UniProtKB/TrEMBL annotation:
GO terms for molecular function: hydrolase activity. Keywords: Hydrolase, Magnesium. Its EC number is 3.6.1.-. InterPro entries: NUDIX_hydrolase-like_dom_sf (IPR015797), NUDIX_hydrolase_dom (IPR000086), NudJ (IPR033713). PANTHER family: NUDIX HYDROLASE 23 (PTHR43222), PHOSPHATASE NUDJ (PTHR43222:SF11). Pfam families: NUDIX. The gene is nudJ. This is Phosphatase NudJ. SUPFAM superfamilies: Nudix (SSF55811).
Length: 160
């Protein structure tokens, strides 16, 4: 049987404030890892909507995307199971909004951290993927694309 390859689509928020970046520490099958606030795109939502939702769920901060930092393709092989997954990540930067004090964070999120670029780079052995640092680097280098770069057709919003 011929299996069709289907990458997992994810969204990530690259959030900087006063020279520090917002990361999450999360439980994974590989142990505690650092990641940009990120997660899987849900059916019926655009990547922009997904990153707004994921940022709130993982950090309790409201987030408004202002630009696309980049689109990334990476592959991960889980040591424990041998699972082979390819991720297609849409990374956005934007404005940090209101913090919802007392809001429970997503399951598996242990805490949020504000780290300098040097601290992020120095902790690379704890990153969930190489894209954590790569997205921060691209943000630091001023890489920005208009939000209109990613078009979500209206058919995405309609159930079939």
């Amino acid at each position: 049987m011929n299996m069709r390859w289907k990458p997992s689509v994810t969204v990530a928020a690259i959030i900087e404030r006063d020279g520090r970046y917002l990361l999450v520490e999360e439980e994974t099958p590989e142990g505690l890892r650092l990641n940009n606030p990120a997660g899987h795109l849900d059916p019926g939502e655009s990547p922009e909507q997904g990153v707004v939702r994921e940022a709130l769920e993982e950090t309790a901060f409201h987030f408004q995307p202002s630009a696309l930092v980049g689109i990334y393709l990476s592959r991960f092989q889980r040591d424990s199971t041998g699972e082979d997954v390819t991720y297609l990540r849409f990374a956005y930067t934007g404005e940090l909004g209101r913090f919802e004090d007392g809001r429970a964070l997503d399951q598996g999120i242990v805490r949020t951290l504000w780290l300098t670029p040097a601290e992020i780079q120095a902790s690379s052995q704890r990153h969930r993927s190489p894209l954590v640092w790569r997205c921060v680097q691209d943000h630091l280098n001023g890489q920005r694309f208009p939000l209109e770069t990613v078009l979500t057709d209206l058919t995405v919003y309609h159930a079939s």
